[in-house]
Amino acid sequence: MIFNWNLFGRCFSRSDATTDLYPTKETDEKRMSPGDLPIRQRSVTAYWLLGLCNNYGYVVMLSAAVDIIKSTTSGESTLSANQTLNDANPGRNCTEMSTGAILLADIIPSLLIKIVAPFFPQLINIRVAIIVLLNALGFILVSQAKTIFMAITGVVTLAFGSGLGETSLLAHMAQYKNRRILSSWSSGTGAAGLCGAGSYMLLSYLSGDNRSQPLLIFLVVPVVMGIAFWMLLERPVVPGLSGTAQENNATGSPGTAHEDNATSLPGTGYENSATSLSETAYEDNVIDVCQAGSSSDMIDNTSEEFNPTIMDKVRAVPGLLKYMLPFGLVYLFEYFINQGLQELITFDYSWITTDNQYVSYQLLYQTGVFFSRSSIGLFRVHNTWALALLQAINVVLLGADAVYRFIPSIYIIWALILWEGCLGGLSYVNTYDR
Fold this sequence. Notes:
By secondary structure, the protein is mainly α. Helices cover 68% and strands 1% of the residues. The protein has helices at 5-11, 18-21, 25-30, 41-63, 65-72, 83-88, 100-116, 124-143, 148-173, 179-207, 220-232, 243-251, 256-264, 277-291, 295-300, 310-341, 354-373, 384-404, 410-433, and strands spanning 12-13, 380-381. Helix 4 (41-63) runs antiparallel to helix 11, helix 8 (124-143) packs antiparallel against helix 9 and helix 8 runs antiparallel to helix 11. 38% of the residues are buried. Mean pLDDT is 75; it is low at 1-23, 75-86 and 251-304.
């Protein structure tokens, strides 16, 4: 049998740009582009911790979705209220509210704050203080919730903090002008998935039936976030600024530092360091998305200044649809699986409860995402539509099992969910790589 290696190579190819995409300290110093500024390891570590802490609450809330709903609705089942469902699915453990409600409460507020926040002044110290307070308040509200309304309010509070943290810290990142900061942030957000789901699963095993009180332990997360920003992260020092301007830049004072940036460093990309996240990202990447032959080309071509109009942005959208559509479908399918189907796929085992089965699904999903997002140094997937198709097959298989329960073992479900997470991570990293 002759295997068509050329066909295989069209979808998967080994990457030879690992050090360009994920530079180490040594390669960063050797290959620093003209726009890059030197940065110390403590700042790189700080941004890793900031990425970890910013996404931690989001992951924990999704992992705890079943426990949150059951603890605030007294675990009420809909079986007695729906005899038809009871006859068709005897022993089916259903709840009044789906875990999808937690997903919506986790995503919609975050999306709204990301849209609104760039229009307000980038007072980074004030923003980080608000983020820390929102995260702490969210964990407290969810852990002490007696009603579903109070629990949802806590999830929404955490979502606001996460969304504000992402848009604020990514915008602040532009002042450091170094690729290692972005790589560190991305790694931290990826680790949040694995650490968040894993830590909640461990606490759920240790706490037994008391699932809400252990959430108070996660109050350490906003504390670590504050320490990372105010004590570990060095303030961005921009060459050419006066002493007063450096102090204002370090404290996040509006106006002076950013104005000095614009006058002292023309052509370096610091003219608009206080611009919104969307404007900064677009200025850095809009030309490269259309022209770069690889992601390494995109990294090295970020010094050109481009001020897009609204129509420029609108005209850029059609060219991005080939990346956006398969990427969006992959995540649509996997969130349907995670928050729509997983709670219905249960097994009657003495060694693991149905609630812990759901938490294990979340952990395996995050594990797959974490490792597949790190795969770009080993191989690339050029056909991202194939990933969307494979994820659709997962939806069909797991959806059919949620109804008919034909898969005999939880180990098969675990393998499918791990594979689901791998597809999501591959779609993410290869879409942005392209």
